[in-house]
Design a protein that fits this description.
60% helix, elongated, alpha+beta, 11 strands, 502 residues, Outer membrane efflux proteins (OEP), single chain
């Protein structure tokens, strides 16, 4: 049996070489390996595209937040402002006409301070102001001055949480969660592609076995026909051989239909055109892989992305609890600034006698009574946090249970492969012995057909057992994020490094 599989694999490799040598002339044909099928599915899967777009959105939102933490430079220009209106002077109880015009601009540098949630601003306001007052009490009805106001201001909230830091960490968790969903979607896609891939391969093998059975029945039919014509067998044996040949021919036709249907389903899954001629190239020699259950469980608990998602849920629940505690909180802010203000009618003399303009202020928000709003918000956030913690524990238990089950299934499938291989050996020997008996006239064609069916079923059984083992081994890789065939973890190193930094 192993020799037969090797021959088929070599034949597939020869076809692959022919197609590769043919270049673009065979663009409508596809000889797919498992890796190539997965690449095509990733490129064409709508779910993968949506998940990737969500990942891009989270990444760009995080980039925007990090950009906001850097120094922000801005210029505000007021090229021209003019106003003419009547005003009332309370000191003289007189209405007077005032005409004013100005032109200026503001340059500002704003720096958010992440560790303290403070804000540092450097502002310079420069303007030219014109004013005309039509009043009898005005000593100088016309005023023309150049003005400049330069100051450095620092604002710091107190008795409250760091909103800037929490917003940044929340966006970092959102990006990490999007990356987790992307990787989980890829693993789910890999599982679906593998199942469909091996389904097509199984149907290819079924068709080949059906053709082998048809060839054997054709040879049997020719032997019986010659013996009937020579008067060595009754005519009824020829009738039965014709029935067996027709049944095997129908089996080939049915296997072809099943194969084409499975190919269409596989093409739809990975996004290939239905007109593409598809051939599956796979090596399913079942080399048993040693699996350490303790290593599988520990690696899964350390790296499973579902657990990291639960941890993110817990962190977000903690953020919500912090925000709930800030409902109607006692808080305050400190604002301090120092600057230089100068003005003069002549631009060159404007900075001769600047004026220092220090300022400082403290403000408090003191809630008096909120009818229990803060208390209820805190209780709701605490319940959400406990729910997230419980979800983490449930997820951990499910992971351990599933891995233990997969390891047991692998051991059982290893035994099934050995049993099916032995069954194929025995069925092959039994068929060869009874074929010789049939040629000698000691066995009817009906009995020989029974042995032929047993051999075909045994060949398909060992193929399906190997496929089941491969799929379960893939399931173990998905469950543990560890490739036991290669002895390597499959989690991205850059992702693991970023998670450790947090």
């Amino acid at each position: 049996m192993d020799t037969l599989i090797i021959r088929r694999w070599i034949r597939c490799m020869l076809i692959l070489g022919i197609i590769s040598a043919g270049g673009t002339s065979l663009s409508a044909q596809a000889l797919l390996t498992m890796e190539r099928a997965l690449d095509i599915a990733e490129e064409n899967s709508p779910d993968m595209k949506q998940t990737e777009l969500a990942l891009v959105r989270s990444q760009e939102r995080l980039n925007a937040q990090r950009a906001r933490l850097k120094s922000q430079f801005s210029i505000t220009l007021d090229p021209f402002q003019y106003e003419k209106t009547n005003r009332f002077d309370q000191q003289t109880s007189e209405w007077y006409l005032n005409e004013s015009a100005s032109s200026g601009g503001t340059f500002a540098i704003n720096q958010r301070i992440l560790p303290t949630d403070g804000q540092l601003m450097l502002v310079n306001r420069f303007s030219y102001d014109y004013s005309f007052t039509e009043s009898a009490f005005a000593s100088d009805p016309i005023s023309k001055t150049f003005n400049n106001n330069l100051y450095l201001q620092f604002s710091q909230p107190i008795f409250t949480y760091n909103r800037t830091k929490m917003e940044t960490e929340s966006l970092e968790l959102e990006y990490e969660s999007s990356l987790l969903r992307y990787l989980l979607m890829r693993l789910a896609l890999e599982r679906n592609v593998a199942q469909q891939f091996f389904a097509v391969y199984s149907n290819q093998m079924s068709l080949e076995i059906a053709r082998e059975e048809f060839t054997s029945n054709q040879e049997s039919y020719n032997i019986i026909k010659n013996k009937v014509e020579g008067g060595l067998l009754a005519l009824e044996e020829l009738y039965q051989a014709e029935v067996n040949l027709a049944i095997s021919n129908s089996g080939v036709f049915t296997a072809e239909l099943t194969l084409e249907n499975s190919k269409d389903q596989f093409k739809v899954l990975i996004g290939l055109s239905l007109d593409t001629t598809l051939l599956i190239a796979a090596e399913i020699i079942a080399d048993t892989v040693p699996v350490n259950q303790e290593l599988a469980i520990s690696h899964a608990l350390e790296n499973r992305m579902e657990l990291r998602e639960r941890e993110i849920d817990i962190q977000n629940a903690n953020f919500n609890l912090t925000q709930a505690k800030a409902t109607n909180e006692f808080a305050g802010s400190i604002t301090a600034s120092f600057g230089l203000q100068s003005y003069d009618e002549q631009f060159g003399s404007m900075f001769d006698t600047p004026t220092n303009t220090p300022a400082i202020g403290i403000s408090f928000d003191i809630p008096l009574f909120d009818w229990g709003e803060r208390k209820s918000e805190i209780k709701a956030a605490e319940a959400s946090l406990q729910s997230s913690q419980l979800g983490y524990e449930i997820e951990s238990t499910d992971i351990v249970v599933n891995i233990r089950s997969v390891v047991r299934n692998l051991k059982n499938l290893e035994n099934q492969i050995q049993i099916q291989r032995k069954t194929v050996e025995n069925a092959t020997l039994a068929y060869d012995i009874n074929l010789e008996r049939y040629r000698n006239g000691d066995l009817t064609s009906l009995d020989l057909g029974m042995y032929q069916t047993q051999l075909s079923e045994a060949k398909m059984a060992v193929t399906n057992a190997i496929i089941d083992y491969k799929i379960e081994l893939l399931n173990l890789k998905i469950q543990t994020l560890y490739d036991f065939e290669k002895g390597l973890p499959i989690i991205p190193e850059e992702f693991k490094s970023s998670k450790n930094e947090k």
